[in-house]
Design goal:
Distance between the termini: 48 Å
Number of helices: 4
Structural class: mainly alpha
Number of strands: 0
Shape: elongated
Helix content: over 70%
Amino acid sequence: MEQVFTGIAITFEVLGAVAMIIGTLIALWVGARSLRRGEGGRTAFLTLRNTLGGAILLGLEVLVAADLIRTITSKPSLEDALILGLIVLIRTVLSMAIQIEIEGVLPWQRALLTSGAQVMADQVRNAKA
């Protein structure tokens, strides 16, 4: 059974990396489209930055899920548990820092909960409009 959950955790890790790669491509496309529309370099840069931030957030959220699956399903030693806990903590802090950078407010101060996927979807939707 442990091998099944290890496979699931690896799948989540791959999905997290793929989300970041595809998100980067989408961010470049949306930023270039904004620039071609004549919206100005600043608007194109902000669009690129926000979309890329959303892609990174989505990838980090999936990678944290993979770490949690690994932690819950394995029988780690105390050292392994501390290392995994540190990895999750670092990824969570990075996620929060990126989210604060994108939204300009602390996560617990915003009225609506917005995930990395929602940020990316909003940017793509705005680019199509």
